[in-house]
Design goal:
The protein is α/β, with parallel strands linked by helices. The protein has six helices and eleven strands. The protein is globular. The chain starts with 13 loop residues before the first strand and ends with a helix.
Length: 250
């Protein structure tokens, strides 16, 4: 018979992990790489102490997405395909435009806007950072020329290592405990004009924007992939710890 006086552990806080979607991709190998990256996010979240509610945005309505955010303690928007240019006034005929998932964009934009409104801690990774910027009224560089942020010649591993410099007075530099980082990236688009309330806090050597944070909401985004297996340091754990701490202050 159970001991009525025995203490039960409190439920773990919930991290909403928002992916682009399940299936529908023209490149199955890319989907496999994204699944591995999401697995890295989930493992890091578990290690920090979160329970994970993973949701595919392309298969989830805006109303359901907002409901699940409202039930969560923090959220993370992961990487994936290009944000559809119709959401930020970009060119639909951009020759380097990849596959897009407008339904996913719509649901994820609702998550970002709701998170800022309700001060739910939010982390964005790669495409997640670009989506956050678009959700708050910013726009994107539709294609980075020069190849310094992805290895398009290797379909099996498109990651590239490079340095990022963070503003010393940024919240993100304090969270990560550094103003210089060696990171792994794989992207051909980037933040251009920052959205409302967003501050640019990191750059690559070529001037590409590498991180943004919100002026007063608990929101931090990085353009690189701290969840990738070859990444150095503790960036993802640090971001999730910051989200956990911000959740306690709500």
């Amino acid at each position: 018979m159970p001991d009525a006086n025995a203490r039960t552990s409190p439920p773990r806080p919930v991290l909403l992990v928002v992916d682009v979607g399940d299936g529908g991709r023209v490149d199955p190998a890319f989907e496999g790489r994204l699944q591995k990256l999401t697995a890295g996010v989930i493992a890091a979240a578990d290690a920090v102490g979160f329970a994970v509610d993973r949701v595919p945005a392309a298969q989830t309505s805006v109303d359901e997405m907002v409901r699940r955010l409202d039930a969560a303690d923090a959220a993370i928007v992961t990487g994936g395909e290009d944000v559809d240019p119709s959401f930020y006034g970009g060119r639909a005929d951009e020759p380097h435009l990849g596959q897009t998932f407008p339904d996913a964009d719509r649901s994820q934009i609702a998550v970002v806007q709701r998170a800022v409104e309700t001060r739910v801690p939010l982390v964005g990774i790669c495409r997640g950072m670009q989506l956050v910027n678009v959700a708050l009224g910013g726009d994107l560089v539709q294609h980075l020329h020069g190849g310094g942020h992805s290895n398009a010649a290797d379909p099996a591993d498109s990651m590239i290592d490079h340095r990022v410099d963070l503003d010393a007075d940024s919240v993100l530099a304090r969270v990560l405990g550094a103003t210089e980082l060696e990171v792994r990236s794989s992207h051909h688009q980037a933040v251009n004009r920052p959205g409302e309330g967003l501050r640019v806090v990191a750059h690559a050597a070529d001037g590409t924007i590498e991180a943004i944070e919100h002026e007063d909401a608990p929101l931090w985004c990085v353009q690189w992939h701290p969840e990738e297996a070859g990444s150095r340091g503790t960036v993802l754990a640090d971001l999730l710890e910051a989200a956990m701490a911000a959740r306690r202050r709500r």
